[in-house]
Structure formats: C-alpha cells, structure tokens
Amino acid sequence: MTYPMKLLCSFLLVSTIWVAAATAQSAELPAVFRLGQNEEGYEVAKQEYQQTLLEVANYDTQDAFNHWMSMMQELQKHADKLDIDLKGVKIWLHAFWNTDGSIDHLGYLLRPDSRNVDELELAAVLKTFMKKYSFPVTSGKKFSHYTGANFPIYSEKVDN
After folding, report:
1. In degrees to the nearest 10, what's the CA dihedral of 66, 156, 102, 12?
2. Does residue 157 sit within a domain?
3. Long-range CB contacts (within 8 A, 24+) of 147-150
4. Over the stretch 112-140, which tens digit does the pLDDT of each residue have?
5. Number of separate domains in the chain
6. Is residue 155 a part of any domain in this protein?
7. Domain that holds residue 138
8. Per-residue pLDDT at 153
9. CA torsion, points 82, 53, 61, 73, in degrees to nearest 10?
C-alpha cells in the first residue's frame, strides 16, 4: 500500500475510533462499527430498520441474494482499488440502508476462521465504500440485512 493510501486509511481509522469512543455509551451508532460494541445504538438501529432485504425483494430469495452478492463484489473491487487485500477475510456484516439505497451504517465482525486483517484498514475500506456505493434497490422504509461474506467473491448471476 502506498504511503498516501496508508495515511488516508490511518486518518479514517482514527476518526472512526474517535467517533466510536465518543458515542459508545449513547444510542448513536457510528457509520461503521464493530458488532458487539455500541449495543444500545445497535438495538435502536435494528428497530428503526426493521424491514429486511428479503421483504424489499418481495420475498424473492434469488433476487435478494443477487443484490447482496453484487454489493459484495463492488466492495471487493473497492478494496482492490485501495490496494487492500480481502482474500481470506470471512466476516459477519449487518448493513443498514436508507430508503434511497444509500448505506447508513455497516456493522462488521471478523469470524474466528477469517484470515487476520488490520481491523482499522477494514473499517476504513467499509467507510469509504459506503460513501460511494448506492444499493440498486429502494424502499418506502429503511431496511437492513445481516449475513456473512467470504472474500474473494466468486458468485456469478446465472439466468435460467
């Protein structure tokens, strides 16, 4: 990783940690947070974003899966552009979307069987990704999705 990129990631990480520390005891939830921290804010968010991705996809599991996998592929491309290697990373993710498809919060937790990765770099990748990415689905209500992801992403859409 180049020096300017490391500097950017370090800045984003420090700012994320500072915001997380400042809001740790409140109901406010940082844009990117580690699952298991900010529990009060996390519980509030789960109530505010009750609608699921499956509901937004009209209970079409294949459609919901395709949208999620497309987002994971875009996340992987984003990390590649930042020269951050996600290969071998296994993670739990909880995404919270606004009605327009913009990402409001991303909760993450590395799985025990994941490759070791600098969590500050990972948080910086997630934070920069959510600022540039917009989910292709919109809804009349805020919605969320909680699942795991393994990198690299190999899934491809197959039309039957």
Report:
1. 140
2. no
3. 147/68, 147/92, 147/93, 148/90, 148/91, 148/92, 148/93, 148/111, 149/72, 149/75, 149/90, 149/91, 149/93, 150/89, 150/90, 150/91
4. 999 999 999 999 999 999 999 999 999 99
5. 1
6. no
7. 3-150
8. 85
9. 0
